[in-house]
Design goal:
The chain is 36% helix and 40% strand. A six-stranded mixed sheet has the order 2-1-6-5-4-3. It has a single domain, classed as Roll (Nuclear Transport Factor 2, Chain: A). The protein is α+β, with helices and mostly antiparallel strands and 144 residues long. A hairpin with a 6-residue loop joins strand 1 and strand 2. The longest helix has 22 residues.
Length: 144
């Protein structure tokens, strides 16, 4: 029973991350992350960012340029060892640009650590899914 509760807490932390991204909400994004020098983030096509201030600034730039975006995690898998958990998933994105919708899919790993009884993101890494590897099932189950 405790293992199921822990998995639900990790999934909820992962969902908070994607909700903050979808809503371009820097305050909510800040609440997801551990504010530490050890946190790391790799956005698609970016160099590695280390430390909460650099990560916060990157989200501020992304949100200012992109605004809100439809995003859902698909094919989500959770693993945990003690106070560290990792979530792998597909990020299914639909972005409106001048009346058209551009869909893309990323592969992501989100690493969380239980800090002060709360699961906080310590690493996020997203990269484009290889061409021809987009998983239609993931789109249907996450964007509907």
């Amino acid at each position: 029973m405790a293992e199921d509760v822990t998995k639900q807490e990790i999934l909820a932390a992962n969902e908070r991350f994607y909700r903050a991204l979808a809503e371009a909400d820097l305050t909510a994004m800040s609440d997801v992350w551990h504010h530490s020098a050890i946190t790391e983030c790799i956005h698609p096509g970016w160099d590695r960012l280390r430390g909460w201030p650099a990560i916060r600034d990157s989200w501020a730039v992304i949100f200012a340029n992109q605004g809100s975006v439809q995003v859902r995690a698909g094919d989500v898998l959770v693993r945990r060892r003690g106070d560290v958990a990792w979530v792998t998933c597909y990020e299914n994105l639909a972005v409106r640009d001048q009346g058209t919708v551009q869909m893309s899919q990323m592969l992501a790993i989100n690493i969380f650590e239980r800090i002060d009884d709360r699961w906080r993101m310590v690493i996020h890494h997203a990269a484009p899914a290889p061409p021809g590897m987009i998983r239609p099932r993931s789109w249907r189950t996450s964007l509907n």
